[in-house]
Amino acid sequence: MARKSRKQQPNAPTPPVKVYNTAIYARLSHMDSGKDGDSMENQIHLVTQYIQERSYLTLTAIFADNGETGTNFNRPQWCKLITAIESGAINCVIVKDLSRLGRNYIETGDYLERIFPSMGIRFIAVTDSYDSEVYRSENLSIALKGLVNDIYAKDISRKTSAAFEVKQRKGEFIGSYAAYGYAGVIIETKKSRDKMESV
Description:
This protein has helices at 40-52, 76-86, 98-101, 105-119, 140-170, 182-198, and strands at 20-28, 57-66, 92-95, 122-125, 130-131. By secondary structure, it is of the alpha/beta class. The termini are far apart.
């Protein structure tokens, strides 16, 4: 067997690293607004830090839906994100966790398994340690998280409906309240009217 030369072999050229035009997507529903760590600012800050630590990610845009449910994908900023993806401006989407993407198990799974891969989109959920370049859809923990997110949304909906029903039975007010300061104006107007009528 011939001996191999000890001379240094010329280094093969390293392929260029693909740089991704990245969009941050943040979502906050009315139910999540009171939770620590789930504010829009916290979500965006956490994902921005993640992007800054990785040279292959370039922050291109931020899309944020405030007060939007995760149970469907008919959200204004989400629709704008999809338009940006279709135009070719975005090829990577990053969220804080999978529940920010959505809480509908079937639709969220559809995006992860079918829509994003067919569009060539890299998807990353930071706190869930999910990166579509590393994990594929058959990852069981991701499927379970999606299922838990779906069940959580349905459970919250049932609890909210039950709470409203109890208030109704007690005769408590369940409608919306007037904007701050508006009720005071109405009261003042009524007082002024009463004063005028008594004169």
